[in-house]
Amino acid sequence: MKREGGNRFVLPALALLSVITIYPILYVIYLSAHRKLLIFNISRFIGFENYQFLLRDDRFWNALKNTFYFTGVSVSLEVFLGLCIAILLNRPFRGKGLARAVMLIPWAIPTVVSARMWEWMYNTDFGLLNYLLGIKINWLGSPFWALNAAIFMDVWKTTPFVAILLIAGLQVIPGELYQAARVDGAGSWQIFRKITMPLLRPAILIVLLFRTLDAFRVFDAIYVLTGGGPANTTETLSVYAYKVLFQTLQFGYGSTLSVVVFLCVGIMSIVYINLLSRDRRI
Amino acid sequence: MANISLQGVKKSFKNSVVIKGLDLVINKGEFFTFVGPSGCGKSTLLNMIAGLEDVTDGNIYFDDILVNNLTPRERDVAMVFQSYALYPHMTVYENIAFPLRMKKVGRQTIDRDVNRVAQLLGLADLLDRKPKELSGGQRQRVALGRAIIRKPKVFLMDEPLSNLDARLRIDMRTELKRLHQELRITTVYVTHDQEEAMSLSDRIAVIYQGEIQQCGSSYDIYTKPENTFVGGFIGIPPMNFMHGTVAGTNPFRMEVNGLILSPQVGRLPSRSRVIAGVRPEDITVSYNKMEESLEVIVRIIEPAGSYNWVDVEWNTMRVKGKASVISSLSAGRKAFMKIPVGKMLIFDADSGERL
Amino acid sequence: MCGDYEYCLYKPSEQGQANMRRAGFYILLLLVCIYCAGPLIWQFITSLKPDSELTKIPPLFTGSPTMIHYLSIFKGHPFLRIILNSAVVASSTTLFSLMIGSLCAFGLAKLRIRYKALILGFILSVSMFPPIATVSPLYIIIRALDLRDTWWALIITYTTFSLPLSVWILTNFFKEIPDEIYLSSRVDGCTPFQAFYRIILPLSAPAFLTTAILVFIFSWNEFLFALTFTSTTASRTIPVAVALFPGLHEIPWGDIAAASIIVTIPLVVLVFVFQRRITEGLTSGAVKG
């Protein structure tokens, strides 16, 4: 069927994607090699200078460290807790739909709104958290606690979502496998290790992939909750790049930071996809 | 009504050749069937005639018009798929009317034609129903209705009866034959069921591994198969094949399982090994000794209604034959088998071709 | 009973323990629900407290609930306009995303296209792009086209970034429609496009609904691009408004709480009505392969 014209159907999507994503990526790489101050119409090609500056930029390394810490702790907690909840809740029960709806609420609320919600709960003097715990910690103002507070909020937001995805993954595992294992004399822990985990592995990997990328790219939560403070202790790469771009208007260096974020995310994606395709022979 | 001519038609996917250089002429108004085992390429052939698959090489002509680059609609073909492919969201009426709506035919004409077709196929009461409310046989008839309403030049059918249960299949076979006799549209039919092919078709092409093994009427293919594949594929139960060696060339004599026979052959085999083919229905098995019969041991008896199929062991060779129902045969006991040399087909063991 | 993971682990003699486990299960379920909905409920309570009670300790329920914050956000700030902006942007994005995405998905699912796997891979990879990486050049482009502070800047951006989601869900769905139905319509005389809107579309209502919900939620909640491309209430969307809530001396927690509740009500409604679809959409392909 030569004259099917299939390409026509795919063209609008591809065109839009190329213009709004490919072209900007190329442009960003181009910008990263310039010194460009937006409003003042200064634009000068400086090659790798921005990158050299980046390597010596303490604030960049700080942001990188914060980002890795945020991602590592956040994703581990989410997946671990999500897995526990998924396993414990994986059974038919009355009101399953209602429970699922409630569990989707943290996911559905804009991150910004939940950040403000938690900001109020974290309030030193009048917040709910300090009251319930009976202490008076300045959660968002303390260099030690601030990043962890942000992590906790992110965990709150996404754990139920992870749980829902993993429950779906668990339900694909045929019940007969458990029966057969039980008949063969396997105990609960063995069943979990030898049957559940291997079969759940692809779902876990996918969840890990998306959550890691999302956590690494985090912006909304940090920007609203702490703005990167106090003293840059919660500043992640995206937040730092944003500030450089839109507060100092250095579009050259800001682009350099953006490119670094893009590269990190790219590398992580490739690693995960490799792990995944070995599992599923994509 | 069109005649179809395939010249040097070849089809390959990536690196594998599915159809190897095929030449064929299908006559106007003929019911022509491609029959063969799964994967032999017959559905691909049908799709190429329909215009749903491109031809890698070669040409297809409808009435001397080259159709290679024409869409199915432009070729004026209609097709019935194995799964019927009815539009689930439309009623029976709308399904049958669909091709005419695509042609922008007037509403009154559509109404008239749909009702006529529905009458022809016994669907008049079902016009308001949706496909999921219909039985398999009813859905099949809707698919047929949708195909014939356009009065196409060529009618294509890809295993349309395979999804029906056995009894319904036989009934629908008769329906199809009746339709063909009435409408006389050139029909190209694909099936893996050789019995279906034999009963429906004017001519059959047996396809195996992308090539036509033999093309001819049901009778020709049944009585004069050109190679062991066709011989073994056509006919239920399958032909008995017995290996033997040449014992003499002038006149031709062969030795099979200790027996010397002198069957008629058209030519001599290239080497010394031959295969003798005899259909089970030509072999008689009896409790009593017959003229020129061989002593055998009964192994398995399969009742088939008015006669029995009997698997016997003849000097360690297994042969299937036919026995009357009244005979007092029992498994493990002695019996007698008669093989008519006149009905024997001799094949060259190396090439598989008939001699 | 034994399609059920937990129960299959019990021997019949342990049924008594099983009942205790069941009680434990419901307690856990309750805890999880409190965990999920708690903060929102707290915010709701906060929104009803008069200003004086906001700073009261212990910060618990209020004895005298008031609607003053809800009124204030509409009178004091042009919140209605902000909601309108979000509604227009989200709806338009959903519409365009469905249109462009479904055409693309149809091509990928049913038609003969070269490099299909590559195209799908590319589209999916876009979902992994960090938005911060594209924000600076897009800002320059939008500024050059004089689209700053307009709905279009957001609509075009959101449509593009929602395409991976639309295309993924719809491609999977279209693939499940038997090929023969499409081929049959071609034989009956349809062009591919006619087959698309006469046959495929009518059969796809559920998938379209699911996709629409997910794209709408994505668009409603997006922050980074909205923050960058909008500067006044002419086009500012809800997330930006909530983040930048103006406060002269102190932060108006009551007003913010009220705004939060108003903003989340449609989302909560959507979630409760469509929880099954949303779950199916999110897990389609990802978990089941």
Description:
The complex is a heterotrimer of chains A (about 280), B (about 350) and C (about 290). Chain A is mainly α and about 280 residues long. Chain A has helices spanning about 5-30, 50-55, 60-90, 95-110, 110-120, 130-135, 145-170, 175-185, 190-215, 220-225, 235-245, 250-280, and strands spanning about 35, 40-45. Chain A has a single domain (about 35-280), classed as Orthogonal Bundle (MetI-like fold), CATH 1.10.3720.10. In chain A, β1 and β2 form a beta hairpin. In chain A, α1 packs across α12 (about 250-280). Chain B is α+β, with helices and mostly antiparallel strands. Chain B has two domains: about 5-225, P-loop containing nucleotide triphosphate hydrolases (Rossmann fold, 3-Layer(aba) Sandwich), CATH 3.40.50; about 235-350, Nucleic acid-binding proteins (OB fold (Dihydrolipoamide Acetyltransferase, E2P), Beta Barrel). In chain B, about 25% of the residues lie in helices and about 35% in strands. Chain B has helices spanning about 40-50, 70-75, 90-100, 105-120, 135-150, 165-185, 195-200, 220-225, 230-235; strands spanning about 5-15, 15-25, 30-35, 55-60, 65, 75-80, 155-160, 185-190, 205-210, 210-215, 240-250, 250-255, 260, 275-280, 285, 295-305, 305-315, 315-325, 335-340, 345-350. A six-stranded mixed beta sheet of chain B has the order 6-7-8-3-9-10, sandwiched between helices. A five-stranded antiparallel beta sheet of chain B has the order 13-12-11-14-20. In chain B, strands 15-19-16-17-18 form a five-stranded antiparallel beta sheet, with no helix packed on it. In chain B, α3 (about 90-100) runs parallel beside α5 and α4 (about 105-120) crosses α5. Chain B is globular, with a radius of gyration of 24 Å. Chain B starts with a strand and ends in a 7-residue tail after the last strand. Chain C has two domains: about 5-70, no CATH class; about 80-245, Orthogonal Bundle (MetI-like fold). Chain C contains 13 helices and no strands. Chain C has helices spanning about 15-45, 50-55, 70-75, 80-110, 115-125, 130-145, 150-175, 180-185, 190-200, 205-220, 225-230, 240-245, 255-285. In chain C, α3 (about 70-75) packs across α13 (about 255-285) and α4 (about 80-110) runs parallel beside α7. The longest helix of chain C is centred in the first third of the chain and has 33 residues, at about 15-45. Chain C is globular. The two termini of chain C are about 25 Å apart. The chains are: A mainly alpha (about 280), B alpha+beta (about 350), C mainly alpha (about 290). Chains in contact: A-B, A-C, B-C. Chains A and C meet through α1, α3, α4, α5 and α7 of A and α1, α4, α5, α6 and α7 of C.
